[in-house]
Amino acid sequence: MKVARLVDLIRGDSFLENAFVKWVLSFAATKGIAQHVSGQHPVAADGHDYRLDFLLTGSRLRVAIELDGFAYHSDRTAFLHDRIRQNHLVGLRYTVLRFSYEMIRRNTRLCVEQLQRVLRDDPLLATYLIAQPIVPIPDDMGTTPLAIITPPARPQVVERSYFDQVRERLTLEPLRQCQSEAIVALANYYRRGQVNAACVMSVGAGKTALGVAATLAFARRRALIVTPGRVIRGTFARALDASMAGNVLFTLPGGPLIAGLRPPVVEVLDRAQGAIRAVSRERLLRAEVIVTNFHSLGESGLLGKLAPDDIDFIVIDEAHIAAAESYRRLFAHFPHARRLLMSACFSRGDGRPVTADVVYRYRLIDSIADGHAKHLRAQRFSPEVGQTEYEIVWPDGLRERVVGKDALLEVLEDERKVAQITATSEEPIRKVMECVCRCLEVQIRALAPLRPRVLFAALGKRHAEQIARIANAHGIAASVLHHSMSDSEIAAVRARYEGEAGTLQAVVQMKMLGQGYDLPPIAIVVPMRPYGSFGEFYQLVGRGIRVVQHPELRARRQEQHLDLVYHGELGLDEHLETLRAENDMDPRPPDADDFGDAPVPDRGGSSPGGWPSEDRVQASVLHEEGNTREQFLHTPMSIEARVEERRLHAMAQAYAKYVAQTSEPRPFEQFVAVMRSTHG
Question: In the prediction, which pLDDT does 499 show?
């Protein structure tokens, strides 16, 4: 059972009130003092009605705690009002203690000493005081914009921009802890005058919210958000659209990021809709945030309309698929703009490294431990026989046998050869589908009242249709998605699949619902094709890794899992091991020609000509029988061990600050015990 702490028993109405409880009161007194503390206590004095931030009532003293935030106590009127208020309280025999944001943040020990000195004069309140308190240096007071968000001073600035106003209001409290930590790391990096930052954020960690918050925090006049395609571009457009439910600006579960301010003026561009060529420079300059995809970065497009100083902050999402020439041109055009490159994996699709300074890293195991990502449960179907026979059918009718996994993987290295695959023997697909059915039964019970979805990845249209037919025969309502379908057909399939009232339980797709696609009810991911790069495989897994947020699931504390069902012959074991070890999450050392002009290999995707024609080679599975083995990517023990590692690292950082400012520090073990008893 969780032991209640003072921070759990006393909840303030503002960031500053909670900071006082967390960093001052919690280290000055034991939790028993909570019964003598009341928040927002009303006081009437000489025709004035006041509310005390906190009142501590003892046997002899009534101690009024007044907390002064800069925004509300900095002008002449507020200065006068504070003195009238304090004199009234003193006249009513209140003992008044005032603490400001800066005092708590920079002189925490002094604040604790001052509070204890007053409470010691009351026989009742004195019984709760902690003798020789251990007072750490606050590590998260920086979540207010006054501490970390203000950018370096700009020379020759006359007018205040929209973002100057934002920084006075911006609060990071609604963000997840990992997002706030990333903002703090970015602030420290940009303060040093550096510009090329990267954040490696696990799938499911919330890169979109981080990108929006960073834009609000670090832009000066105008920001540019660049995405790899329309799906993610649409995700950012919705996140910045105050009229859309679920926008990041105002509707995060923890509250609005910029209360009391209008949303930024956002211009969303899409080459496919012809908007970029049609939009004028004047229209672009009216925007405070421009959202587009990297296809627009040609000189005749977006860059041709903007001057080097028009953009001062750039966000690149899914940076691992960065097109070298496009991004080199972008960064050269805006040489003084600060950059934020975000990705879950910095292994680029073309095999080249991504040059950036990684200032913050949040791994998948951390996301699982923090409850943002599902536990990954791998279901591997492997054959009983030693080697499986395959067959390649050439366009002229000649057939070539391929025996064993190694021979098959050698053939599958060229995706053009397998784009039109149809399995001659459907037994392997049926075996995989039986496993999917078993997983679906478990997921239906676990996610009720929501309906879990299945996402298949196929090699080509014919392969997708074959998988969908077998899925329907097993009672799984499935349809296909491919780029040759019309927009209305794609929209209809997605509506039936994504809506809770829809009729589809599964979709078989080919590189359509990739990076940026977010549907948390996806509970089973089934790659029916090999993946040459770890990044592509990780992106597929990421489509179902996000935790489903639903009141009933939270109420019963339902542990959520993503089932990854795959065929052992596809060579995915190495990718899974990389995902487990997460040793491919760091950018490699930059090469001299990092931003060379070599084109990114065409891997199909949505570009014309990506898939070969019908007369290309075919590969077919001839025979297979086997069994399925289940394993967890991260065991509960490994997750708990990782949680403990992160806690101790955080404690060590806090302890280092404490030691640096304390002449006679307590041992680390005592420091850890106090921090855990007060902060958990």
Answer: 86
Collapsing DSSP to helix, strand or coil, 550 comes out as coil
Nearest CA-CA partner of 509 in 435, 456, 575, 443 = 456
- Domain 375-587+615-634: give its CATH architecture: 3-Layer(aba) Sandwich (3.40)
Tell me the two tokens of residue 86: 């304090």
What strands, in cross-sheet order, belong to the sheet with 95-100?
Answer: 37-45, 48-57, 62-68, 95-100
User: 6-137+661-679: what CATH class?
Assistant: alpha beta
DSSP state, residue 297: G
The DSSP string of 344-381 is: S--B-TTSPBPP-EEEEEE-HHHHHHTTSBPEEEEEEE
Our measurement of the distance from residue 221's CA atom to the centroid of its chain's CA atoms, rounded to an integer in Å, reads 25
3-state helix, strand and coil shares in percent for the chain, rounded to the nearest 5: 40, 20, 40
Give the span between the Cα atoms of 457 and 228, in whole angstroms: 20
Q: How many Cβ atoms are within 10 Å of 675's Cβ, its own excluded?
A: 21
Q: 287 — phi, psi (to 5°)?
A: -85, 150
Q: Which residue has the tokens 């080249």?
A: 352
Q: Looking at the domain covering 146-153+160-362, what would its CATH class be?
A: alpha beta
Q: How many CA atoms lie within 13 A of 510 on its CB side?
A: 27
Q: Under DSSP, is residue 229 helix (H, G, I), strand (E, B) or coil? A: coil
Which tokens belong to 383?
Answer: 């054959």
Q: State residue 144 phi and psi, 5-degree precision.
A: -95, 145
Please confirm whether the linkage preceding 449 is cis (ω < 30° from 0).
yes
The candidate with the shortest Cα–Cα distance to 530, out of 454, 623, 458, is: 458
Determine if the pTM surpasses 0.70: no
Strands (E), 126-195: none
Query: Tell me, what's the pLDDT at 154?
Result: 47
Which helix (H) or strand (E) segment holds residue 318: the answer is none
Q: What pLDDT shows up at residue 609?
A: 29
596 Cβ neighbours under 8 A, 6+ residues apart: 324, 352
Phi, psi of 237 (to 5 degrees): -60, -45
Dig out the tokens for 589 from the structure. Answer: 């050392």
Distance CA 241, CA 245 (A): 9
CB 508 within 8 A of CB 458: yes
The alpha carbon of 222 is separated from its chain's Cα centroid by a whole number of angstroms, namely 23
Question: Can you give the C-alpha Rg of the chain in angstroms?
Answer: 29
**Stretches in the chain below the pLDDT threshold 70:** 1-3, 69-81, 139-159, 229-231, 271-277, 298-300, 320-326, 346-354, 383-398, 400-424, 514-516, 582-638, 679-680
Backbone CA torsion sign across 583, 586, 588, 593: positive
Task: Give one word for 131, left, alpha or beta, with left for phi > 0 and alpha for psi -120 to 50.
Answer: beta
The C-alpha atoms of residue 131 and residue 425 are separated, in whole angstroms, by 76
The helix/strand count (H/E) of the chain reads as: 25, 21
Secondary structure string (H, E, C) spanning 392-454: EECCCCCEEEEECHHHHHHHHCCHHHCCCCCCCCCHHHHHHHHHHHHHHHHHHHHHCCCCCEE
Domain spans in the chain, listed from the N-terminal domain onward: 6-137+661-679, 146-153+160-362, 375-587+615-634
Query: Does residue 529 contact residue 570 with C-beta atoms inside 8 Å?
Result: yes
- Given this chain, do its domains 6-137+661-679 and 375-587+615-634 carry the same CATH topology? no
Evaluate whether 475 touches 563 at the Cβ level (below 8 Å). no
Q: What does the block give as tokens for 198?
A: 């990267």
In angstroms, rounded to a whole number, what is the distance separating the alpha carbons of residues 122 and 36? 12
